[in-house]
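Q: How would the structure tokens look for this protein?
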Amino acid sequence: MKRAKLIYLISTGLLSALMLMSAGMYFFNNAMVQEAFTSLGYPTYIIYPLGIAKVLGLVAIWTKRSTTLREWAYAGFFFDTLLAASAHLVAADGAAGGALVGLVLVLTSYLSDKRVVE
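A: Here is the predicted structure in token form.
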């Protein structure tokens, strides 16, 4: 197996696990997530749509049916992780690590996907 494809599969698999765990928290541990969103200054009404968007974004990335949808999914994950990391850094709550790992995984998956496709 080519190195680029292996990097793509590992980074996309880890990104998928992170996003599915995050979406699972949004749906099944909503009270805790609402508290976290409130402490960061985000409205709580975006929790369920954001969880749905994360699941749909993973579907778009893994199915590869539409290049445009895949690009939008990566863009959404990039902005989600970037804004989460910046919110945690500004709040100085010490919880930015997960978002920064997510940001690295998004970038690694996206860039390795470009190498695998070409």
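The chain has a mean pLDDT of 93.

The radius of gyration is 15 Å.

Upvote if useful.
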